[in-house]
Amino acid sequence: MIDFRYHLVSLISVFLALAVGIVLGAGPLREGISDALTGQVQELRTDRDKLRTELDAAGREALGRGNLITAVQPEAVKGVLEGQKVAIVTLPGAGEIEPITTALTQAGAAVVSQTEVSEAMVDAETATFRSSFASQLTTYLETEPAADASTEEILGQALASSFALAGSDQQRATTLTEFLTTNDPAFATIVTPSAEAATAIVVIGAPHAEVKPADAETVRELGRSYTRVANGMAAVLPTLVVGSAQADTDLVALLRASAMAETLPAVDSVASPVAAINAPRALAERLGGGAGQYGIETGATAPLAPHTVAPQPTPPAAEPEGAEPSESPTSEE
């Protein structure tokens, strides 16, 4: 049985060990521990300062490259789109489009319209309604849809047809525009209406945004739907897609991962000087029959599109006098 003397010895041992630790910590060991901690802190501060310096240098270099691209842009795109009339289509989340429109103007093109596409055009919950409605549009389109065309592709064709027919067959163009803009919710919103036919389309998507893993597949499917809309436009007019390809959930990355990449050109790094200088050159190449993937992000085949002058557009045929108005499709759900 443990007696009182055992407890007393144990307590003395504990206090003795504590006293020894205090003496050693305040004496012989103090300098070594203090010096080690001080050295580690100083090393971390040095690493931090080095990384900050490198980050600042990288930022200045990126800014300098952007300024250089912007400075040479007018000369690099001059005349490549002379005489072309471009319709701008923005997808949900698209940011500032002025750098793109400025570059197109510098290239000699006229921006004749701007349209905003809404998520209603690709909403999975209204797939049946959209499919039924799209089937009513085939007689109004500029070109007949492919036999296996998706609903999104037909709706894209309808929008592109409204651009292509403006001025030459204004009644059909108006009918298609009304169909796309009068539903609730509307499939599209006309920001700047066009009074003359477009010869090409530039579709501008959203810049890169972080996506939660749980939402990734939903975002990918939404992006795939928008690529089908753009592919439908391309069946009517030469079309270029501008967006991001930083992650596999981004619009251009999804396009480049599909078979559409063979015929539907795209430019990445949207909202940067890279996209602004590439957009007119890539569109000019498309008008000449080519299709490439340009930029500095995933799937790009070259950082800069070639300097190609687009062929002069063919003037649209005038709308026949006395043409009977077309009957509008039903727009009630």
UniProtKB/TrEMBL annotation:
Q: Where is this region: Disordered?
A: 294-333
Q: Give the stretches traversing the membrane.
A: none
InterPro entries per record: MctB
Keyword terms of this UniProt record: Coiled coil
- Name one process (GO BP) from the record: copper ion homeostasis
Which spans of this chain does the record mark as coiled coil? 34-61
Ranges of Low complexity composition bias in the record: 319-333
A single cellular component GO annotation: membrane
Q: Which domain of life is it from?
A: Bacteria
Protein name per Swiss-Prot or TrEMBL: Copper transport outer membrane protein, MctB
| Organism expressing this protein natively | Bowdeniella nasicola
Q: What is the lineage of its organism?
A: Bacteria, Bacillati, Actinomycetota, Actinomycetes, Actinomycetales
